[in-house]
Design brief:
Helix content: over 70%
CATH superfamily of the largest domain: Farnesyl Diphosphate Synthase
Number of helices: 17
Radius of gyration: 20 Å
Largest sheet: none
Number of strands: 0
Order of helices and strands: HHHHHHHHHHHHHHHHH
CATH topology of the largest domain: Farnesyl Diphosphate Synthase
CATH architecture of the largest domain: Orthogonal Bundle
CATH class of the largest domain: Mainly Alpha
Structural class: mainly alpha
Amino acid sequence: MYFAPTEFLAAPEAMERRWPLEDSLQYTRWLATHHYENFHVVSFLLPKRLHQDFYNVYAFCRWADDLGDEIGDPRESLRLLQWWRGQLQAMYAGRAGQVSHPVFVALQGTAGRFHLPQILFDDLIKAFEQDQTVTRYRNFEELFEYCRYSANPVGRLVLALCGYQDAARQALSDATCTALQLANHWQDVTVDLLKDRVYLPLDVLERHGYRIESLLERRCDDRFKAAMRESVEVARRLFLKGLPLAGMVDRRLAIDLDLFSRGGLKVLEKIERQDYDVLGARPAISKIERAGLLLGALTRATLARNHCAPAA
């Protein structure tokens, strides 16, 4: 029987077990395919030979995320994240006897085969640690620095799994991932407020005469809408900056990248359509709209391939 992270922590039979490789691979596969976000984990467009490696990387991210967000006690989250970092360090140091968790037993082979830098995983842990102590951001510079740890490593890991580790592609991926993180925050303003987290930069709110107290009271007025409008435009510029990446990778990965970017842009469009009132209703993309985004991505990829094909 397999357990989600918080259940796993409370199950002595899971925590104390020595996990062989095959069982560990089955666990990361189960974790990646038994979650409401599993349609994001492995696209049907990716080669099957990469599926297990994506499951392994996803499992690391899912565990780190849950240790940061699902424990309910910041001090305990920090302790568990430090334990998680210890497992990561033991894996990269080759201390097999100290690697007891199935995620790291499974991830070790992936990290070695694809030369995944340890710092990318460590940066993700650092972001979840920061979430325990930092709940406000003074300006976009501070928020971008947070995204450098919380979002950008994911894109770089995806690129590395697909054979790309050059600086040019990484820079475009960083723009896309930061934009996706911002779009998620603008979509989930009320969700983050329940955790006493505000990702809208304080200087943007102040510039438009909107007080943080009004946000805590869920007060949507013209000042709040102006702050949201500015924030949406920042995210949109980053999405547009990152779009060329889709033309610099394998066609199947290009479709996924295009789909993520267009999905993020669609979230921003939804925010605009509801007049920037994300306090009254959470903007969401419907299944029909998701299908339309996929069709658009497939069409753009086909046209690009035909355009680049040599004349008969």
